[in-house]
Amino acid sequence: MRKVILYIAQTMDGFIARENGDIDFLPEVMPKKSLDFYNDFYNSIDTILIGRNTYDQIVKFVGPKNWIYQNKMSYIFTNELDKYKNTDDKTFIKKDIVDFVNSIKNEAGKDIWILGGSKLIKNLIESNLIDNYIIATLPQIIGNGIPLFSNTNSIKLKITKSIITKEFSQISYEVINKNVDK
User: Fold this and answer.
1) Which residues face 177 on adjacent strands?
2) Angle in degrees, CA 144, 145, 151, rounded to 5
3) Is residue 181 scored above 60 in pLDDT?
4) Using CB atoms within 10 A as the burial measure, which of 20, 71, 86, 90 is most buried?
């Protein structure tokens, strides 16, 4: 069975984006230690799930023609299908994220990366569908924004790996007990 993995960066105060969705606090260049880990992770996945707001922020960073996740199947969840065009490696869908993940989790393939955003993440946590968490914490406090976790289920995790550099700390967790209570 494929694993569903949340790999995301947050500020020290737990925000994944500013209130307006901006991610300008993310570093432009990642340290080599992180790049090695990221490359190993990236090679272990073949599917990326993205919320529309997160997709729009990525496009704002790289431009609409320079999709940075080529050779991976990216599914972008949106209620505005008419605004976007599918390509070989991007499909815009208007489906329930939980039903969709349940259907593809049992298909043949590599692991599934949950890239963001907060609504998509919250739905997957509430449905106990995330198997692993990889959280990079940046040494910044932005005061307010979109939180990574908010009113979620209680989930017991085990630390499986950690990386600490001057630019960030990154901890990998494996879910060991998926409770359904809050």
Assistant:
1) 156
2) 100
3) no
4) 90
Place of tokens 């300008």: 24
List the beta bridge partners of residue 48. 74, 113
What residues form DSSP beta bridges with 146?
Answer: 17
- DSSP letter at 2? P
Residue pair 146/117 in contact (Cβ under 8 Å)? The answer is yes
- Identify any residues that bridge with 163 across adjacent strands, giving them in sequence order: 170
Write out pLDDT tens, residues 119-162.
999 999 999 999 999 999 999 999 999 999 988 888 999 999 99
Per-domain residue ranges of the chain:
4-178
In what order do the strands lie in the sheet containing 73-77?
A: 90-93, 73-77, 45-51, 111-116, 4-11, 132-138, 169-178, 155-164
CATH class of 4-178: alpha beta
* Residues contacting 13, CB < 8 A, separation 6+: 141, 142, 143
Q: d(Cα 177, Cα 89) in Å, to the nearest integer?
A: 34
- 77: which DSSP letter? E
